[in-house]
Design brief:
Shape: elongated
Largest sheet: 2 strands, antiparallel
Number of helices: 7
Structural class: mainly alpha
Distance between the termini: 31 Å
Strand order of the largest sheet: 1-2
Length: 167
């Protein structure tokens, strides 16, 4: 169990380093192309802006912002040079195998497959998060959890009720 936790911890740090290295605009571009398939610069820009407008995070400071064309096209050119994207003859950009691997590494086991159904993704993501937290708690020595017994039992009942309601 402790080795599992160490591996998850290492995987988390690797993912964070990749996110830092790629930066926000690169990740947005990778995400848009992964979710929607090949797109030109204007389509990528519009999708990024649309995604930011629909962001439900309070005080989201990038609402209504869109990448500047100079920044976007320079980044697309760099991403082609880096082997993350290819520029097709029709002017649309597409993920390379390396680009797909990068976005999969960022998403990790939370990566939805196919066109994302945000409701389905949210459920899957929540359950995966709960599973990860349970794995973490299982790796902790029992004496450290004793003072949380009541809360753990309450959460266990809630999960059981959800499971029972599905029968």
């Amino acid at each position: 169990m402790e080795d599992d936790f160490k591996n998850l911890h290492k995987e988390f740090h690797e993912r964070m380093n990749l996110i830092k290295r790629l930066g926000g605009l690169r990740i947005n571009i990778l995400h848009v192309l992964d979710e929607n398939g090949p797109a030109n610069g204007a389509e990528i820009t519009n999708t990024i802006q649309s995604d930011q407008k629909s962001c439900k995070t309070p005080n989201h400071d990038q609402k209504n912002s869109r990448p500047l064309p100079g920044s976007l096209y320079r980044m697309l050119k760099n991403m082609v040079t880096e082997g993350l994207l290819i520029k097709r003859e029709d002017g649309r950009y597409e993920l390379t195998e390396n680009g797909q691997k990068s976005i999969n590494k960022i998403y990790g086991r939370f990566k939805p497959t196919g066109k994302m159904d945000r409701g389905e993704y949210s459920i899957k993501n929540s359950l995966t998060e709960i599973e990860g937290h349970i794995d973490y708690l299982n790796a902790i020595k029992e004496e450290r959890l004793v003072s949380y017994r009541e809360l753990i039992e309450e959460l266990s009942k809630k999960l059981k009720n959800i499971g029972d309601s599905l029968k």
